[in-house]
Amino acid sequence: MSAEGFATGRTWLGLMSAAALAACTPHIPPSPETGFVSVSQPFNVGDAGIAARAYHRSGAYTRGLATVADEATRYLAARASSTKRPAVVLDIDETALSNWKILKLDDFGRPIQGPCDIALDAPCGWAAWDQLGQAVAIEPTLRLFRQARALGVPVFFITGRPENQRAVTERNLLAAGYEGYAHLYMVPDGSRFPSAADFKAPVRASIEAAGYTILVNMGDQPSDLIGGHAEGKFLLPDPFYRVP
Ligand SMILES: [Mg+2]
Asked: What is the CA(238)–ligand 1 centre distance, in A?
């Protein structure tokens, strides 16, 4: 208040703001569980990272991969002989090849640009990491791949990696044990798709149009599988990142 007993402009505005807040903001009591005054919020990403590391470390991730991929392998074995021109479609990252090494280094962020020097034990750009060609096989998927080849079933890779990574990706696939695949489909350089499904589903349609029946389509993202053009759809676990 001023010496004259009037509210000054600043104080009056302050009172108005408090009154406006009281009118517009609901009263929030402390939580009975925590005693905190708080509001709802999305799941904490730091906690999600801790849970993801524990999930990988416990072996549950490896078991989950095997459960899904082995089911795909059984499905293929059961259906291949009675299917005209059967085929298998596989995604690459976190399906055929594991990037766990840099998922850890990047703390589950996915920076595309930037250098990658594994020896530094520091965050890596994904494009530079891909160019190293050091991703390792996801073994249950390699078992499915080898089962397909043993049955004479062609395997097509469809990846969101760009064409400019073709040479190193082919080397990495071969080094990991994926020998004898039918074709590797990659995103044309400079192309952008709102969803991976917008690229992958039409590619599967073109494989079908060539006369194949896609018995098994396996990926780690729902966007690998939605959009049709496959009989059996198998989703591997991947709590580490999301590809729309
Ligand atoms: Mg993937």
From this structure: 9
Residues 98-115 pLDDT 10s: 999 999 999 999 999 999
Structural domain boundaries enclosing 75: 61-99+135-235
d(CA 14, CA 3): 18
> Do 79 and 197 belong together in one domain?
yes
CA atoms within 13 A on the CB side of 4: 3
Rounded Cα gap, residues 103 and 49, in angstroms:
10
C-alpha of residue 109 to centroid of ligand 1, in Å: 15
* Local confidence band at 24 (pLDDT 50, 70, 90 cut-offs): confident
Kindly give the distance from the C-alpha atom of residue 86 to the centroid of ligand 1, in angstroms, as a whole number: 22
pLDDT in tens, 31-60: 999 999 999 999 999 999 999 999 999 999
SS3 137: strand
Domain contains 154: yes
Q: Are residues 169 and 221 in the same domain?
A: yes
* Distance from residue 159's CA to the centre of ligand 1 (Å): 7
User: How confident is the prediction for the chain on average, in pLDDT?
Assistant: 92
Q: Three-state DSSP class for 52?
A: helix
**Do 95 and 172 fall within a single domain?**
yes
Vertex 234, ends 231 and 238: CA angle to 5°? 155
Tell me, in angstroms, the distance from the centre of ligand 1 to residue 97's CA.
Answer: 9
Q: What number of H helices and E strands is found in the chain?
A: 9, 7
